[in-house]
Amino acid sequence: TPKEDTVHETSPPPIVGTLTRKFIVKSQKKGCVGIRECPPDGAYISLMNHSPDKAIDLSRWVLKRRVDGKTELRYIVPDEVRLHPTSELRIYSKKGATIAASSNKNRAGASSARQELVNNEVTSWGDGNSTETFLIDQHGEEKAIFSQSIAAA
Question: What GO molecular function annotation could you give as one example from this UniProt entry (predicted)?
């Protein structure tokens, strides 16, 4: 199975009178499904199926998120969730779902290439200076890791 590692460093535009922060993002995946995005505000976790022609059954897969090395959140994907080829699945926190619903009122809704779920067990996926998100398949094999840290620039 292919293994892919990526590292990104992004910095928001500087604002006069504030500290500049640098976001360091590292991600790796084994197989077709990877963690695409985890906004620092904890609104959602985005999974991506990179296969051009194969749907992936995510039933009973587990997302684990660790914030600042201590808080750990877990989410088990419900049965019958299939991630279509080249599609995204966003798993929102309660707060993230509320924000997305209010911003979608002015648009036609979610893209057809995006599926959405809500984890009603958490208000936020957590925000901190350091987050690690793990995707584990139904057999307990780690399929993807997404870590980000915020450092003063």
Answer: structural constituent of cytoskeleton
